[in-house]
Write a structure and sequence with these properties.
The protein has 135 residues and is an all-beta fold. It is 0% helix and 79% strand. It is built from no helices and 10 strands. The protein has strands at 2-14, 21-34, 37-46, 49-57, 61-67, 71-77, 81-88, 91-104, 108-117, 120-133. Strand 6 (71-77) and strand 7 (81-88) form a beta hairpin. It is globular and about 45 Å long. The chain starts with a strand and ends with a strand.
């Protein structure tokens, strides 16, 4: 089953020795339910690039896949380190996530995680995606 949804994405970034950053995005997208998995898809503009994002959601794990101006795969499994990757114009990098909180409902996905790029701890990220069927 696929339906059109309105998406509100809020990302909070906490990095050492820096002020907290909060970014929001509102977009249209699709929610597909298949074999007890949910796939949330949407596009966003970053600088001159269109980034296409797919969030694969299960009860206790999720994967964020981005393509377009960059290629990224960020996996999440509650309380476990997971390895992903990022490829952009600067090269290819290994990313490590450790999810401290992951929750899913019929209209909301939220993950709070530590992000490491190579061997460097980048910070704590919190991503909340609210999605509702478009009218």
């Amino acid at each position: 089953m696929q339906k059109t949804v309105t998406i509100k994405l809020t990302t909070t970034i906490r990095q050492p020795d820096m002020d907290e950053q909060v970014m929001t995005l509102e977009s249209q997208g699709t929610l597909t339910e298949k074999n007890e998995l949910r796939y949330l898809q949407y596009a966003e503009q970053q600088d001159e690039l269109e980034i296409r994002t797919t969030v694969k959601i299960q009860d206790d794990e999720a994967v964020i896949m981005r393509s377009g101006g960059l290629q990224m795969r960020l996996p999440f499994l509650l309380h476990k380190e997971q390895t992903g990757n990022l490829t952009n114009e600067q090269g290819s990098f290994m990313l490590t996530t450790k999810a401290h909180e992951l929750s899913v409902s019929d209209t909301r996905f939220m993950v709070r995680y530590d992000l490491t790029l190579g061997a460097d701890h980048v910070g704590e990220y919190e991503m909340e995606i609210q999605f509702m069927e478009a009218k």
